[in-house]
């Protein structure tokens, strides 16, 4: 371990910053946030530091570095642009046994200022020992996405009730379980919803009824079309908190790999040709079984749970069985696949409306419905359409859509093996068969798709 991690209490303690530029300014802001008494020493300082001095927020020594500045201070930061001066300051700090950070010089430093994820009073610090600060910042950005801002409020709430928690739960194992429940259960959920009174009430009730069974919950999570970069921050947090993950067939492996390592993952995807209603009943039963066992269940669905995902049916089931639930939306395939294919779903010159539907509608659809689907100047997004390509284009053409209408068939949209087929509606069936397009594929029909060959930026593009 190159460095010993340490959180220092600087409130009311004197800290010296030597240097008056923008780097020194950033260090001063962080130190002031911790309550330190900051002195800046430099012949010149930035306008913001000057304002802080004029307001009495910091002390200012307007001259080159003097050794006597090191008397009666707790911590030292050297932020000058002169390495010889920094080396001299570091040597004097060594003599006086003062911890010093020399900006961008880990060799001269005895402590490093880490990248911070601030959920006060919860603080997460990341350090590369000063050798790769950009990497530390990138790691911080990733960690930022995992921890909701309500965590700080949760820590404060737990601290306020800590004596009662210790009294009610003297056994360390049960106390740990209780804190896990605070993080994963209704208290944290209520704080995320900006319901602090409900959160505190849940905390108190749990303390008063320790012998009762723990109630679980189900979170419907939209996983998007496949690219893990399109997951929402809330979805990523849910995957890292889940005990049980019930995932669909189209959820990518890359997304499942982001889940908590010890979570149990159960495939519940519907297979073409099976009884989908029976499969849906099995999903309902699994959600109920694990939630009743007090577990955090994530129902992980491709795209968005409420766009052709039967999410509404699952919520109705959960509601009827008094099971707590939440919904985390996902980016639906029409939006994501179109964007990755360079296709604007609406465009003032080509399409003023957008229709989302599945291609598995009945061949007995009325002529009026077909005429509506075949209207020009709209974009038609058809989900689950590959199996219907033998007859679908002909029906649209027969009800008024021009045979020359452009289309885009997007296979494995947003994934590494994405392919996009472009052409005219009258050629769609033959071209899809020739290039062996398979599920999952999204079909877009309309004038906007003609822009795709020009605006294409991701994956393979096939024009016919």
UniProtKB/TrEMBL annotation:
The keyword Ribonucleoprotein does not apply. Residues 119-145 form the Siroheme synthase central domain. Keywords: Cobalamin biosynthesis, Lyase, Methyltransferase, Multifunctional enzyme, NAD, Oxidoreductase, Porphyrin biosynthesis, S-adenosyl-L-methionine, Transferase. GO terms for molecular function: NAD binding; precorrin-2 dehydrogenase activity; sirohydrochlorin ferrochelatase activity; uroporphyrin-III C-methyltransferase activity. NCBIfam families: cobA_cysG_Cterm, cysG_Nterm, PRK06136.1, PRK10637.1. The gene is cobA. Gene3D superfamilies: Cobalt-precorrin-4 Transmethylase, Domain 1, Methyltransferase, Cobalt-precorrin-4 Transmethylase, Domain 2, NAD(P)-binding Rossmann-like Domain, Sirohaem synthase, dimerisation domain, Siroheme synthase, domain 2. InterPro entries: 4pyrrol_Mease (IPR000878), 4pyrrol_Methylase_sf (IPR035996), 4pyrrole_Mease_sub1 (IPR014777), 4pyrrole_Mease_sub2 (IPR014776), CobA/CysG_C (IPR006366), NAD(P)-bd_dom_sf (IPR036291), Siro_Cobalamin_biosynth (IPR050161), Sirohaem_synt_dimer_dom_sf (IPR037115). Belongs to the precorrin methyltransferase family. Residues 150-207 form the Sirohaem synthase dimerisation domain. This is Uroporphyrinogen-III C-methyltransferase. GO terms for biological process: cobalamin biosynthetic process; methylation; siroheme biosynthetic process. It catalyses: precorrin-2 + NAD(+) = sirohydrochlorin + NADH + 2 H(+). The active site is at 248 (proton acceptor), 270 (proton donor). Residues 217-428 form the Tetrapyrrole methylase domain. Pathway: Porphyrin-containing compound metabolism; siroheme biosynthesis; sirohydrochlorin from precorrin-2: step 1/1; Porphyrin-containing compound metabolism; siroheme biosynthesis; precorrin-2 from uroporphyrinogen III: step 1/1; Cofactor biosynthesis; adenosylcobalamin biosynthesis; precorrin-2 from uroporphyrinogen III: step 1/1. SUPFAM superfamilies: NAD(P)-binding Rossmann-fold domains, Siroheme synthase middle domains-like, Tetrapyrrole methylase. Transmembrane segments: none annotated.
